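Marked as duplicate of an earlier ticket. Keeping the data here for the record.
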Amino acid sequence: MILAALVQFAVCFLILRWLLKKKPGEPYSKKSVVKFVLFGAIGIVLWYCSSLVLPLNEDTFFGMNPILSGFLTALITAALIEEIVKYIMFRLAIRKNPEVVCWLDVIIAAIAVGVGFTLLEDVTYLFDGAGTIVRAILPGHLLFQGLMGYYYGKARVTKQFKYHVLSLVIPILVHTLFDMFIIGLMSIVGSSEALTGFTEEQLMSLPYYSYLIPMLICAVVVIICALIALILFLRKIAVWSRKGEKQELLKEEA
């Protein structure tokens, strides 16, 4: 699975390099780019520390209906904690940065933070076959961070509190949807390691065997939709950069 991780590294690097060229005005300095990526990576360390003290594990809700189990596990043990941590690190990374002056700057900086989070998280998933392959195809955190940056930037431009709320809520919901069907599949067989280790007879004897195919189809559909959404979002950034859109100046925070 090292190859899949290397593919993910390459994808993130190419996206980040392309994205930085879309910044309006003066490009980000190397110091700022390193800071964004580093703060994202630190987010993984904070997430790991928080996971050690929280009483919830990946298999806490296993044994329940796989749809409910997948949703609760994805929301509570993954999306909620990870997005809150990334939100904090993102805010710290751009705080008082004189190079972040407009809405589009915020979006690009947010995705750069997502790159740092993704790259270090890849190390933790290096030997998790299924997870790493999916991640090599689709760096989901870049999409989640793009949405976070979009709504946070809108909040700073419009001074409307509801967009601050959406900058956290929307990434959490999208992240949950992205993970829930894959985790639901794991809950059916009991663990991620056992997902590919069952014989046909063993699979048919599982309590929620009838959910396997529908959950697999849903997982594939969600991954494809997320990939399309990321591509469309990146294309939007290119359009905004070219046409001078989403470049309203940020207002001071209260």
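See parent ticket for discussion. The mean pLDDT is 88.
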